[in-house]
Amino acid sequence: MNPKFLLILLLPLVFSCKSKSKTLFTLLPASETGVTFQNTVIENEQFNLYDFHNVYNGAGVSVGDLNNDNLPDLYFTSNMSGDRIYLNISKKENGSIKFEDITEKAGIIKRGWSTGVTLADVNADGLLDIYVCKSGNYKGDLRANQLYINQGNGQNGIPTFKEKAQEYGLADTTYSSQAAFFDFDKDGDLDMYLLTTTNMVRNPNRITVPVNDGTGYSTDKLYQNNGNAKFTDVSKKAGILHDGNGLGLSICDIDNDGWEDVFVSNDFLPNDLLYINNHDGTFKEMAKEYLKHHSRFSMGNDVADFNNDGRMDIITVDMLPANNEQRKMMTGPGNFEQYDVELNTGYHSQFMRNMLHVNLGKTPDGRLLFSEIGQLSGVHSSQWSWAPLFADFDNDGLKDLFISNGYLRDITNLDFISYNVAYEQRNLGNLRRYMIDRSLELPSWNDVNCFYKNNGDLTFANTTQNWFGDSLSVSNGAAYADLDNDGDLDLVVNNTNKPAYIMRNDAGKANFLKIQLKGSAKNIHGLGSEVSIYTKGNLQKYHQAVTKGYASSVDYVIHFGLGSNDKIDSLEIVWTDGKVQKLKNIKANETLRLDYVNATISNKTSKQPENTLLADVTSLVNINFQPKEERYVDYNVETLLLHKLSQQGPKMAAGDINNDGLEDFFVGGSYKNYGKFFVQTPSGKFIQKSYTDESLLKGEEDIEMVLFDADRDKDLDLYIVSGSNEYPDGSKFYQDRLYLNDGKGNFTNATNQLPVINHSGSCVAVADYDKDGDLDIFRGGRLTPLQYPQSGDSYLLKNDYGIFSNYTAQTSADLAKIGMVTDAAWVDIDNDTWLDLVVVGELMPISIFKNNKGKLSNLDTFPNSDGFWNALSAGDFDKDGDIDLVLGNMGLNSRYHCSLEEPLKVYGADYDDNGRWDGIPSYYINGREHPIPTRDDLLRQLPSFRTKFPNYASYAKATMKEVLTDLQMKQAIIKQAYMQESMYAENMGNGKFTLKPLPQIALWAPVQSLLVEDVNHDGNLDIMIVGNAYDAEPIAGRYDSSVGLILMGDGKGNFKPTLYDKTGFVADGDCKDIIALKTASKNKLYVLSQNNAPLKVFKGK
User: Fold this and answer.
1) For residue 147, what are the β-bridge partners?
2) At 1062, is the secondary structure helix, strand, or coil?
3) I need a labelling partner for 366 at 20 to 30 A (CA). Which of 657, 672, 708, 1092 fits?
4) Rounded to whole angstroms, what are the CA distances from 696 to 7, 632, 703, 736?
5) Which of 4, 10, 8 has its CA nearest to residue 937?
6) Conformation bin of residue 843: beta by default, left when phi > 0, alpha when psi is -120 to 50
7) What pLDDT, on the 0 to 100 scale, is given for residue 204?
């Protein structure tokens, strides 16, 4: 079976964009431009999907001034019909873009299957040379890469070339995708990185142990320039060891240390790679350490500072469509078991969508962290995509995004694939013939190339119809350049089986600056230099590297859009060897020429680390504890869940258990694993202590806990909520537990003083709600196990000198089945001295129960606030004398986007009469409500639906009205989410609140815990936020973009988001809770818990 078919069985894809009449770009006809090139691919006995699985991957284009006339020329690669080279003969005075085909005159040789191309001055003579990569179902020399050395201009200014790859040592015969030239060892000349793929592996999606020793079929290569027109393969010596399936290549200084690094995006299972330069001629692969996850089928990539913060960010593209029908036609089951196997085998977390990795800089301990925010930014699904390019197309000072799209045959159709699998099992000997013939019947996946305008707030607007229109194509390689020298960036796109696109940009009157670099003697075009410009305090930064996108390279002329600014306040260029040149007051709308000879040695000293608010003291406090979570896969039982319900801890509780004036804390346990106390000593270190007999097998999951005086003996007792989703409702392992303290930190089990509660719980909140002198308990019900989305059972437990009774019905008519509760707090919201109860949960609104002298009534204060609420906390953030709320939700960086008009819903009922509820989730795409699950997942839970959906096509078109009958709709309990944002709820008095979203960075991931503290000691309350969720179903992918955040309050209800560079607070794992501890000094300790990972401790300064 061909791997490209098998690979798609797991996944989702495809985007359509619409058009308008007037567009920013004008598609110019060949009759006007003279560019008649077309990359024609015709399947045959040698080149077909079965024998060469990259047969439909297309080709590239490079742009550069080959004859030094200040006009960018074009080189197109062709898979089958021969490369073409076009000389730019445009005349600025008449505004034309015109080219002449000089292929034969230039000496270009037709040979083999060309893929990527890049232009570089390989021999340092001031003339751009051409390096062409080769692949294809060929043997030996027909796959040898070509190096065309520029011989200078002949008659009529036409450059000529001689092919000298063998002479230079660069006639590599690997299946090559692209090459990039850069000075990795800082010896002044240009070395070469070669990106490779392979046709030697029949199923590159099969799980095998990653090859990381340089012996893989598709390990990339690094060629070192010896300085004598010879290159030597130094791959293994330099640490280029990881096997891949390379489709994208970028050179960048990702860690801002002045040395160029390499980013590689790999198709299929192999991990994307980030080779960090060690400054000694070697690299270290760090993608798994720096990136939390990456694209599953990574195509092209680009690296650029898109948010103008001075750090280089990364985008990779994949195959995810925004169109529901195409997603359902190509997405197989969400296989969490396979996902786990991949992780345990050594693969990174991978999900099928475009990824936008924002560079957050180095942590205090030197780690480089990225947060992936493609879904929040709006660029995660753009079709079967190839070339992403960051560039300022509208000259407003912000880098926009172009993505080329399409595929020659729609090989992702699951009806087609499933038939092929069945055929293979019956007719193994005839499979090749059958596959070749059947693939010819598949339609082309033509689509629109997409444009995204940078909004300046980390989000993008899809401007495809305004900027481009609706021209359909199968587009692959792409490059930008100012072809007509009018001050804006035009685009050139290499299409498969359609003439190439020459797209003229008509950006209008916005200002710009163009920069030409004249570098050192052996690096004349200044590759590796970085240019920074400042206009009215705003930074733009550009790293000079031309290999970008997919199989292509862009022009060497650097371009900055300036918007309405008519000058640049200052400019700094840092050349590859570290020398610096600075200029001030530069006029706009010019081409500035910067010469290396004017640079000087920098006297800039290394930036000293800032003094942060907190310090990581984990290694100093004797806390060496890692909570353990036994493996349980909820999806094997309830395949329609959006996330696990069994992976919620550990939570913690703080308090002085031995009455020595120092606060201790308890960490909850899990099935088979007991929680532990950590007792603080005067030295600031902790002693680990058990709380019960651990010789017995522990069956409970500790979901939340609290330390409080349950029996009025003036010490802190321990209450533990039991929960999870692993047992049926009514199990004894859902019974909460109570342990009484003897005043010295020793505990005795007193669970017999609680009522029987054999239902899964979530949270506990303690208060003397009835003012009788002892502390009562609200115990939240998380869910009815194995019956999602049924509400859990919540309880109000009245305390009578340490004996607790169920007082729920007597206290409130609405509380017991309020919903799938996740958190609660007692807060006097109306200053009447009676503590009210605030409750939040999953697919339920923010609920406030007014305390009427011991009776609770639901106020319905927040209508239509239903969300995926995880956490809440309270404080007077605006200093107006009443208590405000802060609430943690799922966030906006999600596959799902819900609103009041288009909520996410779950339809719950027993549709197949088997005694078990089935919760079918839905969401809106393009205004229509569709089921979220794939057909395979729906039929696993509801096999009877197979008659309704006999194939993938019938299901792909279905809305929820086709999935459920009118009767089933009426029988279902429908729960919904209207909000995703985490919120600040300002108390306006009189029972009224105003909801305001927290700052955007707090919406990058689910918030799991909120700690209200005055962290910076300015008298205003701040909010410490931790989150993420690694338990999401594997098609949507885990949430992991939170790195720990402190929102600094100003005492007026406003918050300034502050990251680890200022705070020293790093919480980038699967974080579940954060607590504060008083110590012997004035400085508090902050303890962070993570699922299946060690505790971390931070100390205030």
Assistant:
1) 131
2) helix
3) 1092
4) 46, 21, 19, 17
5) 10
6) left
7) 80
**What one-character DSSP code corresponds to residue 220?**
-
**Confidence grade of residue 602 (pLDDT, cut at 50, 70, 90):** confident
Q: What is the DSSP string of 795-816?
A: EEEEEETTEEEE-HHHH-SSST
The Cα-based distances of 402 to 493, 717, 980 in angstroms read 11, 60, 28
Sheet with 928-931: list strands edge to edge.
928-931, 918-925, 904-909, 973-977
Instruction: Name the 3-class secondary structure at 156.
Output: helix
Nearest Cα to Cα of residue 762 among 855, 867, 646: 646
579 contacts 602 by C-beta, under 8 angstroms: yes
Task: Specify whether the CB–CB gap between 575 and 601 falls below 8 A.
Answer: no
Interatomic CA distance for residues 33 and 25, integer angstroms: 15
Calpha distance 155→41 (Å, rounded): 34
- In this structure, of 426-435, 846-855, 950-959, the range with the lowest mean pLDDT score is 426-435
Phi, psi torsion values for 788, nearest 5 degrees: -60, 135
Give the chain's domains with CATH numbers.
Answer: 32-318+353-409+444-531 (2.130.10.10), 410-443 (no CATH), 614-898+978-1100 (2.130.10.10), 904-973 (no CATH)
Q: Which backbone phi and psi does 878 adopt, to 5 degrees?
A: -110, 10
Residue 171: exposure state from Cβ atoms within 10 A (0-12, 13-18, ≥19): middle
The predicted structure's pLDDT at residue 12: 36
Radius of gyration (C-alpha) of the chain in whole angstroms:
31
Class of residue 133 by CB neighbours under 10 A (exposed 0-12, middle 13-18, buried 19+): buried
Question: Beta-carbon neighbour count of residue 356 at 10 Å?
Answer: 28
pTM: 0.96
Cα(486)–Cα(482) distance, rounded to whole angstroms? 7
Q: Is there a contact between 837 and 851 (Cβ–Cβ < 8 Å)? A: yes
Give the Å distances, CA to CA, from 657 to 362, 626, 627: 38, 22, 21
Token code pair at residue 971? 């029988």
Tokens of 464: 């495809």
pLDDT of residue 438: 83
| Of 894, 917, 890, 842, the residue nearest 640 (C-alpha) | 917
Q: Nearest to residue 702, comparing CAs of 761, 747, 643, 785?
A: 761
Q: Is 834 helix (H, G, I), strand (E, B) or coil?
A: coil
Dmax over Cα atoms in the chain, in whole Å?
103
* Residues contacting residue 666 through CB under 8 Å, at least 6 positions apart: 652, 653, 675, 676, 677, 678, 691, 705, 707, 718
Give the helix/strand (H/E) hosting 914: none
* Tokens linked to 330: 């190509």
What pLDDT score was predicted for residue 139? 84
Q: Tell me the residue type at 790.
A: Q
Mean pLDDT of 614-624: 96
Residue burial 399-429, b: 16+ Cβ < 10 Å; e: rest: bbbbbbbbbbbbbbbbebbbebeebbeeeee
- Round to whole Å and give the CA distance between 543 and 528: 6
Phi, psi of 295 (to 5 degrees): -60, 150
User: Which pLDDT does position 92 carry in this prediction?
Assistant: 72
* Chain segment 1046-1061, per-residue pLDDT in tens: 999 999 999 999 999 9
* Tens of pLDDT, residues 261-271: 999 999 999 99
The two structure tokens encoding residue 1071: 């974080």
What is the structure's pLDDT at 421?
A: 63
Q: Are 665 and 678 spatial neighbours (Cβ–Cβ below 8 Å)?
A: yes
